[in-house]
Amino acid sequence: MLAIKTQGTLRIHVFSEDAVLFHAPSGTLSRITRPLAHLLQGLGPEPRSIKEVLAVLPANDRHAAREVLARLVADGILHEVEG
Amino acid sequence: MTAPTLASLSLKEIKSRLRSSRLALDIPPYRPIIGCREPGFAEALQAMYYDYPLTGAQGFHEVSLEMMHWGSVWRFGRRQLKLGVNGNFPFNPLPLGQAYPMFEWGLNWCITNYLHERITFHAAGIGYLDAENRPAAIMLPGVPGAGKSTLTAAALERRFTLLSDELCLLSPELGTLLPIPRPISLKDASIELIRARQPGARMTSPVRDTTKGTVAHLQPPPPTEIDNLVEPVARLLVFPRYQRGARLACRPLPTGQAMLRLADQSFNLHLHGETGFIALVRLMEGVRTFELDYSDLDSALDCLERLAAEDPLQ
């Protein structure tokens, strides 16, 4: 079962309509949805299963969120492990 | 005691000081010392910086800018100008006749490459006083050709003051913008457009065939002590886009989306790391964000005035 954890510090700020994510080690600044922001705020250096993480989102948002998580893994902002 | 200004020197004395690279002016955020022997440069500098204070040639100067001849007639068929910045030469040479634009571009280059205690954005900035007489600002970020400088030049006809036509400098600690009022760079059709609107305004003679097209500079309002002391807080972030024949359209932007677009226009946000992110978030929390498509200047200015008047903090 796959799990994800953060790689370095994530700073997330939620605005009224959207949110932004900043990954300090890489300097990456991204725009994300508010639900995804709340999801990512729940992540830390300890692995959490992807299924459990996505379960908190509305069903319609899970596919898009899975793609964003994959991109964040590819960019080195999140780390995917066997959990 | 008020410092003497460039107006206190005759054109002959200005040329003499430029020839010996000892003309020093207070042009925020720097006190550059300037040298140039190119015909026409002294006249342009006098017209644009007439009211700016002189500083002593013997004191400390953060930057020295010298426009000098380069190349020989025999080797390249023509001579060119190169810009020395503190003894280095960061630019390719330019044709003779482009000394004045080269000087302004050189000052901009110094700000974006040296002034890292501020977060620097490619954005125009115009100031105003809100209903409680507090200094406020509108940031106008955008790529070249968006119409920032033209809009800024025309905004001075209304209630707005000039922070900059090119660079907004954010203090990460205070969240305020440093005013750096300097000549406004106008290009191509904008030159005649603003000349027709402001027939009494001083402009440099247009310089053709630059890398940015035909360029002329518009004299800024005279600097005052207030301009230099009071740093406004941005209240509006408006992304202008000039399109010939376009209907006026002003659309709110989601804050996060606007933040990323503004970050794209920063020269040095990456140097500030997490501090920069926090400073940018704080800026975004305090502004309302819009896209503005326009073809008519007065309609665009009416819109900006309306947005400034609608400030919920007032």
Q: What does this protein look like?
A:
The complex is a heterodimer of chains A (83) and B (314). Chain A is α+β, with helices and mostly antiparallel strands and 83 residues long. Chain A is built from three helices and six strands. Chain A has a three-stranded antiparallel β-sheet. A three-stranded antiparallel β-sheet of chain A has the order 2-3-4. The longest helix of chain A is centred in the C-terminal third of the chain and has 16 residues, at 59-74. The radius of gyration of chain A is 12 Å and the shape is globular. The termini of chain A are close together. The mean pLDDT of chain A is 86. Chain B is built from ten helices and 15 strands. Chain B has helices at 11-19, 41-48, 73-76, 99-114, 148-155, 189-197, 225-229, 255-264, 269-285, 297-309, and strands at residues 23-24, 33-36, 64-70, 80-85, 94-95, 119-129, 135-141, 161-164, 167-170, 184-187, 207-210, 213-218, 233-242, 249-252, 288-294. In chain B, strands 6, 7, 8, 9, 13, 14 and 15 form a seven-stranded mixed β-sheet that branches. In chain B, helix 5 (148-155) crosses helix 10 (297-309) and helix 8 packs antiparallel against helix 9. The mean pLDDT of chain B is 92. Classes of the chains: A alpha+beta (83), B alpha+beta (314). The interface between A and B is medium-sized, with 16 and 15 residues.
